[in-house]
Specification:
By secondary structure, the protein is mostly helical. It contains 19 helices and no strands. It is found in: Cell membrane.
Length: 495
């Protein structure tokens, strides 16, 4: 009995850094940009490579756990995560930090299925397992919630590298505890790993996103070739999934319109979550000159609403039809984006928190609705595959949210930036506020620097509002789409 809860403590200890690292860097954007002289494109890679690597590898790493046992899987993931954290803390260039974040994503993709497998094998009683899963879920939401606040506190008092360095002692302790308390499991040596399929998928995704990001700055035959290669890779991956007897992703799930709609909801909801945090953290620090800790505290109500909104959303799901609840969740999110686009965050903080809490709850409703729809319409023998695909959708949505919100912000920023031609001739076109501020600080002509910063801040505020309006409009459309797609849910499930 005692060993069960020691193993649960071990799982909590290693899962917490994984969840924190998903959000901790949002507050550090201005600091990282200045410390490592990051371009806007490099900054987006630092942020989203973590989620993209997880999205591509989480399924085969779950299969690896069946093959070697969750003890070895957890130990392997912890070692990689520890090394990657140290590498990230010592990074002195953009490419070194991007590489470290990719390795962190690899470690996280191994740790996540290991923690779930650990709970499944350790707690054989259903009630005890549900209790353990509840704690696991709370840690997931709580870690994401505390990430920006922890990042702000660290940046207030320490070097930015400490954001990653704090993972190292935790992971070292976990390694010792795993070796001492976690028993070796029986394994399935015949379990297929799908590593080749995973590498094709993740390579294709990365090529497409690299081409998309780079084409914003320069478009030539190399970028087009890379984009075409990514498309061909995805087509080949899909054909492979259809032709193999043991695919990594069960594409037959997507033939069910409820499942496919719910996956879209999961991806878009995660895009909204991380995209909004990306915008807000920059707005607060670069425009309103909040400290990292103040910015973390400002964002906290949004993350808490997401973390604790689960019970409220569950209560609603037991009272109202799923298609109503899902579409209302999308509609609330759209309304929140529109409301946030019309306020000044520094001067109307109370209204900002109201809209942020509403958005957090609406995102949680959307995520739970998508899960419920998938579980209610998926045959029991495919429930595990459906859950794994949805988990992959969450991580893919997080990565895409950073990419798309970041590119929209950069586009509207450059379109609305109005400065004298003499300034443009002297410094060129800048694609982000952080880049512009860095350029202005290097100018010897202080009057020109002042003009540039003032114009850049005004342009960023305009761009921020425009991105929020676009996101709000997209969610209004999605609300109608979800309602029309899910309104016949009961009839479909009963057949």
């Amino acid at each position: 009995m005692r060993r069960k809860y020691i193993i649960l403590i071990i799982i909590i200890l290693i899962y917490l850094p994984v969840t924190i690292d998903a959000t901790v860097l949002y507050i550090a954007i201005p600091t990282l940009s200045e410390a490592l002289n990051l371009s806007n494109n490099q900054l987006l890679w630092v942020l989203d490579i973590y989620s993209l690597i997880m999205a591509g590898l989480i399924l085969p790493m779950g299969a690896l756990g069946d093959r070697i046992g969750f003890k070895r899987l957890m130990l392997l993931g912890t070692v990689i995560f520890s090394f990657a954290s140290l590498l990230a803390a010592l990074s002195n260039s953009a490419y070194m930090l991007i590489t470290a974040r990719a390795l962190l994503g690899l470690g996280a993709s191994i740790i996540l299925p290991a923690t779930l497998a650990g709970i499944r094998h350790t707690f054989t009683d259903d009630k005890e397992r549900n209790y353990a899963l509840g704690i696991w879920s709370t840690i997931g939401g709580g870690g994401a919630a505390v990430g920006p606040l922890l990042g702000g506190f660290i940046l207030e008092h320490f070097h930015w590298g400490m954001i990653f360095l704090i993972n190292v002692p935790i992971t070292l302790v976990v390694m010792v505890l795993i070796q001492k308390f976690v028993p070796v499991q029986q394994v399935n040596a015949q379990q297929r790993l799908h590593l080749q399929q995973a590498l094709i998928l993740i390579s294709s995704i990365l090529m497409l996103i690299y081409a998309l990001k780079t084409s914003f700055y320069v478009l030539d035959w190399k970028i087009l070739s890379l984009f075409i290669a990514g498309v061909i890779g995805l087509i080949y991956f899909i054909r492979m999934q259809k032709s193999t007897d043991n695919p990594m992703v069960d594409l037959s799930l997507f033939a069910n319109r409820i499942v496919s709609t719910s996956i879209i909801m999961a991806v878009v909801s995660m895009m909204a979550l991380v995209g909004f945090e990306l915008l807000l953290s920059q707005e607060l620090q670069l425009i309103h000159h909040y400290t990292p800790l103040e910015a973390g505290l400002f964002i906290l109500p949004f993350m808490i609403a997401i973390s604790v909104g689960g019970p409220f959303a569950s209560w609603l799901m037991n009272k109202y039809p799923l298609h109503y609840l899902a579409s209302v969740g999308m509609l609330m999110c759209a309304t929140s984006f529109m409301g946030l686009a019309q306020i000044n965050f520094a001067e109307q903080s109370n209204w900002a928190w109201v809209w942020m809490v509403l958005m957090g709850i609406s995102i949680e409703i959307a995520l739970l609705s998508s899960t419920a729809a998938i579980m209610s319409s998926t045959p029991s023998e495919k429930a595990t595959s459906a859950g794994a695909v949805e988990g992959m959708a969450y991580e893919l949505g997080a990565g895409l949210g950073i990419t798309l919100f970041g590119l929209m912000l950069s586009y509207f920023y450059t379109q609305s930036l109005i400065v004298p031609q003499a300034v443009i001739d002297h410094v060129g076109i800048q694609h982000s506020l952080a880049e512009t501020i860095k350029t202005a600080s290097d100018l010897t002509d202080k009057e020109m620097a002042k003009q540039l910063v003032t114009a850049a801040e005004q342009s960023f505020s305009v761009a921020h509002r425009q991105v929020l309006y676009v996101a709000g409009g997209a969610f209004f459309f999605l609300a109608a789409f979800v309602y029309l797609r899910l309104r016949h849910l009961k009839q479909q499930v009963s057949h």
